[in-house]
Every structure is written in C-alpha cells, then in structure tokens.
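Sample pair:
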Amino acid sequence: MIAAIRKLGNDPMRKALYLMGILEDEDVEWLGKTGATKYMVSGTVLVHEGSPIEDVFVLLDGKLSVVVKAMGNREIASLLAGEIVGEISFVDSRVPSASVATVMDSHVLVIPRAALSNKLKTDPAFAARFYKAVATLLADRLRSTVRHMGYGTGAEIADPDELDEALMDSASMGAIRFDRLLKRLRIN
C-alpha cells in the first residue's frame, strides 16, 4: 500500500490526498455538513473568468476543464476528483483568471465563501490546516506547470510523480477521509 501511495503520478486521488490528508476528521466533517452537494451536467460553468465567485468547490467525482480567454479559450488544465476550485480567488479576493466547467456529468461540494470565511476567522487551528492544504495544492500545481514548460528537468528534480515523505504520512488518512466524505454525501 505504501508503494501505491508513494507513486500516485497524475492519479486524481493525489489531489484529494493533499487536501484531505492535511485536514483532520472534524474539518472534513464540517466541509460535508456546511457544503451542499450538487449534481452538474456536462457543460455547466462553475466559475466564469473575470466574475466574482461566492463559493469554493470540491470536485467529488467527474471532470472539470479550466480554460483561459487570453489563450483562445484553450484548456490549461483538467481537474479530477478531490480537486478544489475557487481557492485562488478565495485566498486573494480577486476575480478568477480562468473559467471552469464540467466536461462530464459531475458531483461537486459547494462551500459558501461566507461560511468558510467565518470558520477560518473563528477556528485558528482549522485555518492553519486549510491554508496549508491550499498552499500544498498550489505548490504542486506550480511544480507541474514548471515541469510542463520544460524548466528544471535536470538531476536536481526528483521523480515528479513521487510523493514527498512528509506528505506520504498523511496520504493514506487522506484517502480514507475522502472516501468517508463521498459515502456520507452518498457519492459513489
């Protein structure tokens, strides 16, 4: 099991492991209770580039496409189960720099921005874990982007698909938490 967790590659569960592995059981429970599960048919736009958003989303199952107008509406990323959407705009309070839409029927957990902001203000321990999880996800995305652009391909880069030792410790618990969340929300 350790070898499977260590070598997740681009497996969609990797992102869930970052988020759910850093959060604690009660954090994930709070997300599940506070958020609303929504079924979205293929083609539904969750985030419109340049328009403020009022929610943060966790993709429970399905697939999302991230596109940027300035690049001719070219897809710059595909998001799979466990990915969080809207976190950058949540963190920096700016309008989204890309649009995000479902490319297949999907289930998302919709967490109201106001509820999340209030939780972060009133629960410093949750805030620390949440922001660490978001920072870890963003760091992984940045590393992937840098690799995709062809930078840092020398010997100084470890296997890009291998989880860091520190992350591996929480990876199995992250998988368990994500599975519990899906079962609680009846998404299988």
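The chain has a mean pLDDT of 83.
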